[in-house]
Structure formats: C-alpha cells, structure tokens
Amino acid sequence: MPAPTVTRCLATLIEAGMATQLSNGRYALSIKTLEIAQAHANEMAHASDRINELNQRVMAASRH
User: Fold this and answer.
1) Of 42, 43, 52, 6, which Cα lies nearest the Cα of 26?
2) Within its chain, how far is the Cα of 9 from the centroid?
3) How far apart are the first and last CA of the chain?
4) Is there a contact between 39 and 33 (Cβ–Cβ < 8 Å)?
5) Helix or strand or coil: residue 63?
6) Four-CA torsion 47, 35, 17, 27, nearest 10 degrees
7) Closest CA to 29 of 38, 19, 21
C-alpha cells in the first residue's frame, strides 16, 4: 500500500478514536478498538453457544 494511503488511513483511525500515535512516532490501536474487538469476541462466543444449543436440539429431535 502506498505511504500516502497509509497516512490517510491512520489519520482517519486517529480521528475516529481507533488509533493513537505514540511518543516514539509509532502507532497503536486505542482502547476503543480493543473494547470493540472484545465485544465482538463476546458476541461470537454467544453465537457459537447458541448454534451448539440448536444443533443439540436438532440431534435430539432426529433421534425420536
């Protein structure tokens, strides 16, 4: 990816509060990004649990 594109993307992420520039000039994800990632992981775990529950119901119903 061209450097100007990376710079624009980083500026957009910083403006949205999703990234921050460190004192050493490098960039890092913000707490906001990590919170979104954790919320997504929680939702995926919940969805997986629900799918497993539904699969068990289907299997139990197919035995009858």
Assistant:
1) 6
2) 17
3) 57
4) no
5) coil
6) -110
7) 19
In sequence order, what DSSP letters do the residues of 20-47 get, joined into one string? EE-TTS-EEE-HHHHHHHHHHHHHHHHH
Structure tokens at 12: 């957009």
pLDDT digits (tens, 9 = 90+) for 7-25: 999 999 999 999 999 999 9
**Which parts of the chain have pLDDT scores under 50?**
none
Q: What is the DSSP code (8-state) at residue 2?
A: -
R_g (Cα) of the chain, nearest Å: 21
Three-state DSSP class for 19?
A: strand
Among all chains, which residue has been given the structure tokens 């497993």?
Answer: 52
Token reading at 4: 């100007």
